[in-house]
């Protein structure tokens, strides 16, 4: 399997090089040259596999044997040994049409652990095998940062710097990142919002001289390995539900911000998983919902919501979808992305809209709806949703017919967002791992939004 860029201007490369490149060197996003299609009899055989076995099979379609089988198996095994559930991502069934896939059983209680525990181990593996310097640069609205730091803290040969928007992440998210005191971790708390943080890091990754000099590596979903690792739980969820009830296609309702989680579903569907609707669930920062409904991709005003991790206007992975929507025409993608850069807006041809609407459905939750959903499900079934998952459940209610089967992704544990949950008359408890964070000192540098200042911090921190 070769990997290429959505902008078509890099040399084809293998799995490890694609992993290390992160953002493609031509400013595009890395994708596989061809999406492999899993034969139906193979899919049937996968039904019986454990999460770890399934991940090995899926990765084997992409890794070209660059990681020997035994090493890949060990990396996968070690990555999920830190999870609190033996199933890694267990299913909680609300009723026959609604299942919740709990993606929050990893060390930082959010879905990002599923890919980032593995990526942390993979960076460590590559650093040792190839003697590579690994200087990670990431931007976070709260969860990616915590999970990435947890995935690499204290690991030899790896430095990690994470930018988060100052005072715009939940207290628990902030504590998860900033109470880590390992020498290889730098937290920059930037005055601005997540889009500002993501813009700076993308600019630095696109500056090839800087990227090469400082050996920049990505942990955000600009890195294709993040996307691939997230396809695994779509397959796993499908097989878990298929064991409980007879299903044909299944819908997925996916809390969406940077479009990474749902793009993994798009990839799983292209690989042959019988997915019905891919439902894009979001909040008031609804650029993606507006795109699916109106064909216009244009950021609105940034709004702080009950689901802060999805307070994102510019969705990094959208470019990957544009590539497939435009029949893999890298020239067209470049043109569209330049248009977006210049005019702050991108309009999809009317002729493409039937395809968009058959690929995705969408629902954006507004204001109190998020809290009402949490309260309703807690009353009716005793199950406590976090605010991002609540957006997923609201989108299930809006877009999935009751005679269809839908899996909603529970992307975080409710305790990470106690600020929102305290507004509802329900009882909540902190898991002990989160409770103990409140007594610890924090380590972070608060910065104005200034690229020069951020660069100065990185130059002082990274190993070269
Ligand atoms: C808890 C939670 N849910 C959903 C999302 C959306 O995921 P994505 O950015 O991959 O679309 C995020 C982060 O963006 C998140 O942290
Ligand atoms: N919600 C994310 C935003 C970054 O998304 P990523 O999937 O590109 O890492 C976060 O928690 O940081």
Instruction: Classify the beta-strand content into a percent band.
Output: 5-15%
Cα gyration radius (Å): 21 Å
Number of helices: 20
Anisotropy-based shape: globular
User: What is the CA–CA distance across the termini?
Assistant: 31 Å
Second rung of CATH, namely the architecture of the domain at 91-109 and 225-421: 3-Layer(aba) Sandwich
The total strand number stands at 15
- Oligomeric nature of the chains: single chain
Give the class from helix and strand content and strand pairing. alpha/beta
- Could you tell me the mean pLDDT? 97
Largest sheet: 6 strands, mixed
CATH fold-level label of the domain at 91-109 and 225-421: Rossmann fold
Which ligands occur here? Answer: pyridoxal-5'-phosphate, the ligand N[C@@H](CCOP(=O)(O)O)C(=O)O
Model regions low in confidence, pLDDT < 50 over at least 5 residues: none
Helix content: 40-55%
- Which CATH class of the domain at 91-109 and 225-421 applies here? Alpha Beta
Strand order of the largest sheet: 3-4-14-9-10-13
């Amino acid at each position: 399997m070769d990997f290429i860029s959505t902008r078509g201007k890099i040399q084809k490369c293998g799995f490890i090089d694609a992993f290390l490149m992160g953002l493609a060197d031509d400013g595009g996003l890395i994708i596989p040259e061809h999406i492999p299609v899993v034969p139906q009899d193979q899919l049937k055989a996968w039904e019986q596999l454990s999460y770890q076995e399934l991940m090995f099979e899926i990765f084997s379609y992409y890794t070209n044997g660059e990681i020997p089988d035994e090493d890949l198996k060990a990396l996968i095994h070690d990555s999920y040994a830190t999870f609190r559930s033996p199933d890694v991502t267990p299913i909680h069934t609300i009723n026959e049409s609604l299942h919740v896939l709990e993606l929050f059983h990893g060390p930082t209680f959010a879905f990002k652990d599923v890919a980032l525990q593995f990526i942390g181990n993979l960076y460590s593996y590559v650093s040792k095998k190839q003697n590579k310097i690994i200087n990670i640069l990431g931007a976070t609205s709260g969860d990616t940062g915590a999970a990435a730091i947890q995935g690499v803290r204290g690991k030899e040969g790896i430095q990690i710097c994470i930018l988060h928007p100052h005072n715009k992440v939940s207290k628990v998210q902030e504590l998860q990142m900033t109470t880590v005191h390992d020498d290889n971790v730098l937290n920059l708390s930037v005055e601005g919002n997540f889009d500002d943080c993501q813009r700076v890091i993308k600019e630095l990754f696109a500056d090839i001289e800087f990227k090469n000099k400082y050996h920049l590596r990505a942990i955000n979903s600009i890195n294709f390995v993040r996307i691939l690792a997230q396809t695994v739980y779509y397959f796993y969820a499908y097989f878990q539900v298929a064991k409980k009830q007879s299903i044909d296609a299944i819908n997925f309702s996916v809390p969406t911000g940077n479009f990474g989680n749902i793009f993994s579903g798009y990839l799983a569907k292209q690989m042959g998983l019988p997915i019905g609707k891919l439902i894009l669930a979001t909040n008031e920062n609804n650029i993606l919902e507006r795109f699916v409904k109106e064909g216009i991709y244009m950021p609105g005003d940034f709004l702080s919501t009950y689901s802060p991790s999805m307070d994102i206007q510019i969705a990094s992975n959208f470019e990957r979808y544009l590539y497939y929507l435009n029949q893999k025409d890298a020239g067209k993608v470049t043109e569209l992305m330049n248009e977006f850069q210049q005019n702050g807006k991108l309009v999809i041809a009317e002729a493409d809209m039937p395809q968009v609407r058959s690929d995705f459905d969408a629902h954006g939750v507004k204001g109190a709806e998020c809290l009402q959903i949490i309260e309703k499900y807690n009353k009716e079934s005793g199950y406590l949703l976090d605010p991002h998952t609540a957006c997923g459940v609201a989108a299930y209610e809006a877009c999935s017919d009751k005679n269809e089967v839908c899996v909603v992704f529970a992307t975080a544990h409710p305790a990470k967002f106690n600020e929102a949950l305290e507004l509802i008359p329900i009882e909540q408890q902190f898991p002990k791992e989160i409770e103990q964070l409140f007594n610890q000192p924090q380590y972070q540098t608060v910065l104005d939004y200034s690229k020069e200042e951020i660069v100065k911090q990185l130059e002082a921190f990274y190993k070269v």
